Amino acid sequence: MSDPHNYPILRRTVFQFPAIDNHAHPLLKEGHRDAFPFEGLVSEAQGSALTNDSTHTLSSLRARKDLAKLYGLDPLTTTWEQLKEHRKTIQYSQLIEACFQPTNIQCLLLDDGLGGVEEVGQDYQAHDALTRSPTKRIVRIEVVAEGLMKTVLTPHLGTDTLDVAPILSQFHDSLYYAFEADARHPDVVAFKSVVCYRTGLDISTFISQASLKFSILEIFKTYQAGGRIRLCHKALNDMVVQVALEVAASHNIPVQFHTGLGDNDITLLLSSPSRMQAIIKAYSNTKFVLLHGSYPYTREAGYLTATYSNVFLDFGEVFPMVSRRGQENILRQIFELCPTNKIMWSTDGHWWPESFYLGSIQARECMFKILKEMVEDEDLTEDEASEIVKKALFHNANALYNLGLAPDFDDTAGT
């Protein structure tokens, strides 16, 4: 076993340097702390695949041990059900504090467009109390678009015919101005798209008017019949993305894209970022952030990040949803090709404070192991490895999102 005192500079940087969590979601309100199955902490599965199968994954078995230690329980004997019962006995504010204190997260960037946030989630500003720097907001563009579509279609309910052309024009213009207003808001630092879930990442650079009109007619029929408005028509979804990309470029804010790992609402073959190559080329002045390491398409994401100056790669969510060896392989694949000034860490924390805890401690453990190996192989010096950690945890996100923060860290301590 290697000497635990080896590489003290790298060790201190990895485990103590503050982090900007560049993609996360709100915590549950105290009164709704058990609103969703706790198994969602370690899996994107749904239904019986979540409640029956997810606790048998290696990532879940590891998370169970990590959480048992956090709760002060025996990591070798505590079961998943015992974990769930024990956390109910912990005061919610104390649970949040216990989870966040070890993470050393200095700033949270929250996508508050996750379904259910308005009913059971905390407001993004409520998270300011958890970090040393104020929380910033990421606007989910499909949520904005669906609200505007409802606004333009509601006056036409009950009519037998629909003049689609002016409605399309009204929707496009209102979408543009809404994105403009969001981009100007001092708390908004990025847009986020879930087009990956809706119609896939093969985003068109040209969209026919006929396809757009047909999409609106289909949405109107569903809405008129009492269904909810959901953007899941390729032409319209691609248009929404295009408008967001245009506005983002004019305000120098990035657009985050869900890529890869997700629930069963995703068509896996359409979740590879390689399908975004045409849109990345077409909007060369817009900064694209590929989320979740694009797993299992990490190498494709690395290629895009290395080849296009406007593409950046986040490596969140795989902590804790992938096994330890899987996490290590993902990080190795990222380092194969990605420029180290373009990678960023996140928790993809959501609902449960434990998601922020696991996303942080597991990522830091993984970074230390992989970078330590690179130092031992003489690919890097210890100082170079430490600088990569600082960039991945803080500096890259600080620059990309124009946060203007200074890391709360004393570089001279312990030297």
From TrEMBL:
One of its GO terms (molecular function) is hydrolase activity. Residues 244-403 form the Amidohydrolase-related domain. InterPro entries: Amidohydro-rel, Metal_Hydrolase. It comes from the Eukaryota. Gene3D superfamilies: Metal-dependent hydrolases. This is Amidohydrolase-related domain-containing protein. It comes from Candolleomyces aberdarensis. The lineage of its organism: Eukaryota, Fungi, Dikarya, Basidiomycota, Agaricomycotina.
